[in-house]
Every structure is written in structure tokens, then in C-alpha cells.
Specification:
Low-confidence stretches: none
Shape: globular
Strand content: 5-15%
CATH superfamily of the largest domain: Phosphoenolpyruvate-binding domains
CATH topology of the largest domain: TIM Barrel
Radius of gyration: 20 Å
CATH architecture of the largest domain: Alpha-Beta Barrel
Largest sheet: 8 strands, parallel, barrel
Distance between the termini: 55 Å
CATH class of the largest domain: Alpha Beta
Helix content: 40-55%
Number of helices: 11
Structural class: alpha/beta
Number of strands: 8
């Protein structure tokens, strides 16, 4: 039974120990944030995936710290129970430890979020430790890390040829003090092994069923994007098609004069 109070970072290790699966989805604005909170979701991630969903970009690389603060503040203000985590965007934590801490601090102070998420493994141990030591919880992210798309040459599966590196990365962020780690687009067998060996929870996206929790982009699982989606996405609704139908019906009714009627109009009498 999950608590009705706002979730704290300490709840997630307890959930792993009790084998209660952690649920996470993304939000970038007030409507989805409120609905997710009402649904009972555990973690709301204000992801730099807003570049794809909100801005219509091909990669997450152009997102700025100011944009993450803007969207993060809206989401955090709209939530009462869920644990709001905000992505640290590309080049907001890679330049120096001081720069990383400054930007992490801005995200927490200016948005009201509970934690920040960083992509990377062995290469960011010092950064994660520096941020955690300052009192800011960190959610790790290893495997296929979208901010490294130009290094990887695309968004392909990770952890086949570089299995040991993904394992090492996961242990590295745990050792550095992360409270949990996202495992993205890696073989389910590797994800299961990592999950069994780490003391902190794993949250999978395209990493199979054995992770301690799961996360998806809300727009993906609601079917708001038409056409093909990644294999790991299950569409729980087809809101894209429903929305198109609603828009077209509105257009037809406005043009035919069927909308508005007297019921939707005001009168002097």
C-alpha cells in the first residue's frame, strides 16, 4: 500500500525491498502533471524529451537549462504526491563540477522538484557524488542515453557489444550516491542481472520486465504520436486518432453552422 503523503526519496529503496514496482511517466505542463498525480503515479519525470514531444525536435540536445526550469516549475507546482524529477539537459553538467552543481541547484530551487536526472555512468561519478553531497538526490541513467546520440550514431540497442560497460556504469552511479537508475534500451537479461545486483532500484524503459519499475513517455503510451513507435512502447490509448476525429468534427460543425447552438450561446433575456 503506497502512502497518501508526498513521496520521498527514501520510499524507493523500500519499494525495491518490498518488491513494489515503481511507476513513472513524463509530464511537461500542468494538465498532464495534475492527471498523473491524481492517477497515483510514483515518479513524474520532466524529461528533456520535451524537445521531441513539446518542441518537435529530432534530438534532446538543443534543450536549455532555462527551458527545463520553466517546464519543471509548472509540473512541480501542479503536483501534490508524486516525486517530481527534472532532467539535467545536455551540457548543463559536463563542463565542470561547479557548473553541474550550480545548475542542479537552480533546478531544485527554481522548480521545487525533488531530484535531478543525469545521463552517464563511470564518466560522471564525480559529478553525481558532488551533487548528492550537496543535498540533491540524483536519478542515474545508463544504457542508451539520448544525449549521446551523436557518439552512438543513433538510438540503437546498447549492452550487447558493451555489456560489461553498461554493468559498470550502473554500479558507478550507485556507488556515487544515486537513489535509483534508469536502464534504457538494453537486453532484458542484462537488465535483470543489474537489477539483482544493485541495492538501488532500477527503472526500465525498453529493458524488460525484471526492473524494479518502468517509465515511458506519456505521449507515446497514450498514442498521441501517429505512426510507428519504439518496440518497447505499449499504447494504452489511441488519443492521437481520437483527437484528430474531434478536431475534424469541430471543423465540420463550425462550417455547417451546427456549432454553436443556443445552448452554447448567451442571450440578453
Amino acid at each position: 500500500m503506497m502512502p497518501e503523503r508526498p513521496l520521498a526519496v527514501t520510499d524507493f529503496k523500500r519499494m525495491k525491498e518490498q518488491k513494489t514496482r515503481i511507476t513513472a511517466l513524463t509530464a511537461y505542463e500542468a494538465v498532464f502533471a495534475h492527471l498523473l498525480d491524481e492517477s497515483g503515479i510514483d515518479i513524474i519525470l520532466v524529461g528533456d524529451s520535451l524537445a521531441n514531444v513539446f518542441q518537435g525536435r529530432d534530438t534532446t540536445l538543443p534543450v536549455t537549462i532555462e527551458q527545463m526550469i520553466y517546464h519543471g516549475e509548472i509540473v512541480a507546482r501542479s503536483v501534490k504526491r508524486a516525486f517530481v524529477t527534472v532532467d539535467m539537459p545536455f551540457m548543463s553538467f559536463q563542463i565542470s563540477l561547479e557548473d553541474a552543481l550550480r545548475n542542479a541547484g537552480r533546478l531544485v530551487k527554481e522548480t521545487g522538484c525533488k531530484a535531478v536526472k543525469l545521463e552517464g555512468g563511470t564518466d560522471i561519478i564525480k559529478t553525481v557524488r558532488h551533487i548528492v553531497t550537496a543535498g540533491i538526490p540524483v536519478l542515474g541513467h545508463v544504457g542508451m542515453t539520448p544525449q549521446s546520440v551523436n557518439v552512438f550514431g543513433g538510438y540503437g540497442l546498447r549492452g550487447k557489444e558493451n555489456r560489461s560497460q553498461v554493468m559498470e556504469d550502473a554500479f558507478a552511479v550507485e556507488e556515487a550516491g544515486a537513489f535509483a537508475v534508469v536502464l534504457e534500451k538494453i537486453p532484458k537479461e542484462l537488465a535483470a542481472e543489474i537489477t539483482g545486483k544493485l541495492a538501488i532500484p532500477t527503472i526500465g524503459i525498453g529493458a524488460g520486465p525484471e526492473c524494479d519499475g518502468q517509465i515511458l513517455v506519456s505521449a507515446d503510451m497514450l498514442g498521441l504520436f501517429l505512426g510507428n513507435q519504439p518496440r518497447f512502447v505499449r499504447r494504452y490509448a489511441e488519443l492521437g486518432n481520437l483527437t484528430l476525429e474531434a478536431f475534424r468534427r469541430y471543423i465540420d460543425e463550425v462550417r455547417s453552422g451546427a456549432f454553436p447552438t443556443d445552448k452554447e450561446s448567451y442571450s440578453e433575456f
